[in-house]
């Protein structure tokens, strides 16, 4: 097995008396796709927020490629290779589709502080952005304002922005939530492609069991903020606790 | 060529293009098209306010930061020129020194304010700027040995820029140093305006808009939002100071009322909003309309009041002393009908 890229050790956050994430220790290897499941309120998104830095941990550490990044800002973690797509669509609503993706590529290439060049003449940024947009089939909407897009297309753009970032760790937070049946495959195929073609670590919060079954190498179950189960999909899905508490119903559906 | 000059940000509306061309031609040939001391005074004020408003729009419209200290930076530039001309003596060197010192002081002060407040929350910045601007205004009026207090400072600028300097006639207009002075201001403002237009259309400018739209996401894709906010603040402050220096060179006088007053701060806000936030061209239209109204609305109303004599109530309503009332009405109407400003409206509608 390849080496550990991302690791959380005893990661905990308390809001007042409520422990939202409770001492979660977990290591994620390069080239591995981990599905993170659990009922609503289990702390999945909060766990993501702790890893990518939107929320500061009360205790515990986050380590990326052997370096402790627990004290770093969101932007600094992003620079070191932590990429994140959001559950609630979180874009630049009054900029165009193209501009949203261009901003990601421009940042990755360290061009943000170029004050006196013409952005519209930076064709290599535009071209790179268009390549990503084609992959999510949004290239024809390139000049539309994001606020004008349908929900499904906004979700696709959300994924496109993470892909444009080319991080070492991809964190998808329910990427297909609210998507129509014919839109979701575009996004799922992309994630499958990422898994196949790159050596990235992929973390995926997802509710749909069939999706998890086809994509995941491993399942981590969170319950009340704590780690409830961790292992290969077949094993975790078969375990009593998961069967009973979270997956019983969904498994029957499949 | 033109595209490069405008940084790829074309007016994108026929009416807007025509209006902007009209403004450009009127200002470029103002001494010949509108001879007379008062109209030249108005033209110079328009040039300077276009630049001042554009620099404020970089902050408010593009970055989404509210600042109440813009007149303070404007004043720093103006007092820089005044103090240098007073203490170093009349000359070009003094103008250059005062201008540079003013711009530098403004940028450094903006950096300090930004470091203190922008790290926390953008709204905190608005309050801090309000406090610092008030403190500076009090300080300027208290340190009268240095600043002339409420009376301000009058000083001498190089003779080539004053009415006493004569060059001959062109098209029946006597070319004096005052006209050279006007062209100094016109070309400096034009160049700095185009520079600002380039900055907002640069990769940096795109990040500013991203920060305005969604700072949370901007951070998540790797932009250190604080640094961008601070850089925009410093840049905006420095350009405001340069506008102040030009104003001081034009007026040959600085005082709290012409540069530091809170009234001017409100005027700038109104000009940005009327013209259209987040569009550099909005600064042009906003400043032109507002300065013209400030200078000529009273005359216009005088004429209208005379024409309405004999009618009930109208003459009182149109009395030139009520011009502020009508300016207020104009402002409310423009915000009501053009919430995105004149430029936003022109670009959107056909």
UniProtKB/TrEMBL annotation, chain A:
Recorded GO MF terms: ATP binding; ATP hydrolysis activity
Keywords for this protein: ATP-binding, Nucleotide-binding, Transport
Pfam families: ABC_tran
Protein name according to UniProt: Branched-chain amino acid ABC transporter, ATP-binding protein
UniProt entry tagged with the keyword ATP-binding: yes
Cellular-component GO terms for this entry: plasma membrane
All copies of domain ABC transporter, residue ranges: 6-249
Taxonomic superkingdom: Bacteria
Cross-referenced Gene3D superfamilies: P-loop containing nucleotide triphosphate hydrolases
From TrEMBL, chain B:
One cellular component (GO) term of this entry: plasma membrane
Transmembrane segments annotated in the record for this chain: 12-34, 40-59, 92-116, 123-144, 180-200, 226-248, 268-293, 300-318, 324-344
Main localization, broad class: membrane
Keyword Signal: no
Descriptive protein name: Branched-chain amino acid ABC transporter, permease protein
InterPro entries: ABC_transp_permease, LivM-like
UniProt keyword Membrane present: yes
Keywords: Cell membrane, Membrane, Transmembrane, Transmembrane helix
Any one GO molecular function term: branched-chain amino acid transmembrane transporter activity
Family matches, as Pfam families: BPD_transp_2
Classification via PANTHER family: ABC TRANSPORTER ATP-BINDING PROTEIN (PTHR30482:SF17), HIGH-AFFINITY BRANCHED-CHAIN AMINO ACID TRANSPORT SYSTEM PERMEASE (PTHR30482)
Membrane topology qualifier: Multi-pass membrane protein
Compartments reported by the entry: Cell membrane
């Amino acid at each position: 097995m390849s080496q550990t890229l991302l690791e959380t050790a005893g990661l905990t956050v308390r809001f007042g008396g409520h422990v939202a994430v409770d001492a979660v220790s977990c290591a994620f290897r390069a080239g591995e796709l981990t599905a993170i499941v659990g009922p609503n309120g289990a702390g999945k998104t909060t766990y993501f927020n702790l890893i990518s830095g939107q929320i500061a941990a009360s205790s515990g550490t986050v380590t990326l490629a052997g370096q402790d990044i627990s004290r770093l800002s969101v932007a600094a973690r992003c620079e070191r290779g932590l990429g994140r797509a959001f559950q609630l669509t979180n874009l630049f609503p009054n900029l165009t589709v193209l501009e949203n993706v261009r901003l990601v590529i421009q940042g990755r290439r360290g061009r943000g502080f170029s004050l006196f060049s013409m952005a519209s003449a930076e064709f290599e940024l535009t071209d790179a952005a268009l390549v990503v947009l084609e992959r999510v089939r949004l290239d024809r909407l390139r000049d539309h304002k994001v606020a004008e897009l349908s929900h499904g297309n906004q979700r696709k753009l959300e994924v496109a922005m993470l892909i444009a970032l080319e991080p070492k760790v991809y964190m998808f937070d329910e990427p297909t939530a609210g998507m129509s049946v014919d839109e979701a495959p575009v996004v799922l195929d992309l994630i499958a492609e990422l898994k196949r073609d790159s050596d990235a670590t992929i973390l995926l919060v997802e509710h749909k069991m069939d999706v998890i079954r086809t994509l995941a190498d491993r399942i981590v179950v969170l319950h009340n903020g704590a780690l409830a189960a961790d292992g290969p999909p077949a094993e975790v899905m078969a375990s009593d606790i998961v069967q009973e508490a979270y997956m019983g119903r969904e498994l029957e559906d499949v | 060529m033109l595209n490069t000059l405008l940084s790829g940000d074309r007016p994108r509306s026929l009416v807007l293009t025509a209006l902007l061309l009209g403004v450009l031609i009127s200002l470029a040939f103002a001494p010949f098209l509108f001879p007379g001391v008062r109209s030249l005074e108005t033209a110079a004020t328009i040039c300077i306010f276009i630049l001042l408003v554009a620099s404020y729009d970089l902050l408010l419209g593009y970055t989404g930061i509210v600042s109440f200290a813009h007149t303070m930076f404007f004043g720093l530039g103006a007092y820089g020129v005044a103090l240098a001309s007073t203490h170093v003596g009349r000359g070009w060197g003094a103008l250059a020194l005062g201008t540079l010192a003013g711009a530098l002081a403004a940028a450094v002060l903006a950096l300090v304010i930004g470091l203190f407040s922008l790290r926390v929350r953008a709204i905190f910045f608005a309050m801090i700027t309000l406090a610092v601007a008030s403190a500076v205004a009090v300080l300027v009026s208290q340190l009268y040995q240095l600043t002339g207090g409420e009376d301000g400072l009058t000083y001498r600028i190089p003779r080539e820029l004053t009415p006493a300097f004569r060059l001959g006639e062109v098209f029946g207009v006597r070319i004096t140093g005052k006209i050279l002075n006007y062209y100094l201001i016109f070309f400096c403002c034009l160049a700095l305006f185009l520079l600002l237009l380039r900055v907002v259309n640069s990769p940096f400018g795109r990040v500013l808009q991203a920060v305005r739209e969604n700072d949370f996401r901007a951070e998540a894709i790797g932009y250190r939002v604080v640094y961008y906010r601070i850089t925009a603040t410093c840049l905006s402050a420095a350009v405001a100071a340069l506008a102040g220096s030009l104003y001081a060179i034009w007026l040959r006088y600085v005082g709290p009322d012409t540069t530091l007053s809170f009234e001017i701060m409100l005027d700038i806000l109104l000009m940005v909003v009327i013209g259209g936030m987040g569009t550099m061209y909005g600064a042009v239209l906003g400043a032109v309309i507002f300065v013209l109204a400030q200078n000529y609305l009273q005359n216009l109303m005088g004429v209208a009041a005379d024409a309405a004599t004999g009618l009930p109530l109208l003459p009182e309503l149109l009395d030139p002393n009520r011009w502020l009332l009508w300016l207020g009405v104009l402002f409310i109407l423009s915000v009501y009908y053009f919430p995105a400003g004149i430029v936003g409206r022109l670009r959107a509608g056909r």
